Structures are given as C-alpha cells and as structure tokens.
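Priority: medium. Attachment 1 of 2:
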C-alpha cells in the first residue's frame, strides 16, 4: 500500500474521533493515522488483541498471515466494527478470482461489499495509450444493516 492510499483510506472512511485497527504490514497506514490525528490500535494489535472498543476502520493485508480461516477472521472483524464501519482488504494485484473469494467469505460473516478501489502509480494521459502499473487492489467491506427490518446483517 502506498502512503497516498493510506491517507485516502483514513480520510475517506473515518472521522477524527474514530478508532482504526491496523493489521496491515508496513508503516503507511500508521503514518496516515498519525498525520490525520486519528486514534489507532497500530501494529501492536496483532500481538495483544484488537481491544474492546469498536473501530470504524480495520485495514488488513491478504492473504492472512496466520492460520485463521477467512470466515473466522471476518466474523472477528464484524464484531470489532461499529455499524457502518469498514474493513479495507489489501489484495495482491493480478489474481482475478481472489476478490470474489474474499467477498464470499466476508458475506458469510455478515459483512457487505461496498467498493473495490484500484490504485495505479500514475494517472492516464489524454491522447496516450498507456498500460497502468497497478500497485494496490483494495476491497472495502462494511458492517451494514439489512434492508428487511434494520437488524444487524
């Protein structure tokens, strides 16, 4: 994940008083959290747990580094999010089936698909055919309410 992507996730998906859980590798999200003056369980969260307070944003790399099943992981994410909170899943680029697998596991855990962000290293230029160098695929999942009664999904 680039520094710019970390900044966009923090600024677009959280407010200043919101809690962010950083499960991603690298310092990019931590830098964005500190610069935006957000509260966070930074990299320590992997070692000591995710805390008792519900977060607005959880950012994680994929595939999972530990032996937790995707379903168990997303159930824990759902339990750790406020309503309307998001899980940003950083995917390795190039595997066209992986986003579908992630969304299926997340849906089984009660999370809903919100958005798929593809980040490239430079914007396309008018009049030039250029193949973009994509560096990050991010799936945004949310803890939403169902449309049939307002109960938790």
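Attachment 2 of 2:
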């Amino acid at each position: 994940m680039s520094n710019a992507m970390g900044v966009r996730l923090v600024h677009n998906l959280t407010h200043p008083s919101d809690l962010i859980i950083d499960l991603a590798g690298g310092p990019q999200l931590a830098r964005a959290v500190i610069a935006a003056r957000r509260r966070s369980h930074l990299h320590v969260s992997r070692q000591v747990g995710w805390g008792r307070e519900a977060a607005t944003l959880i950012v994680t790399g994929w595939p999972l580094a530990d032996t937790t099943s995707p379903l168990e992981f997303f159930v824990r994410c759902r339990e750790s999010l406020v309503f309307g909170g998001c899980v940003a899943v950083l995917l390795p680029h190039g595997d066209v089936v992986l986003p579908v697998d992630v969304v299926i596991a997340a849906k089984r855990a009660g999370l809903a698909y919100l958005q798929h962000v593809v980040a490239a290293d430079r914007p396309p230029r008018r009049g030039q055919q250029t193949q973009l160098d994509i560096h990050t695929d991010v799936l945004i999942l949310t803890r939403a309410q169902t449309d049939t009664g307002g109960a938790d999904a």
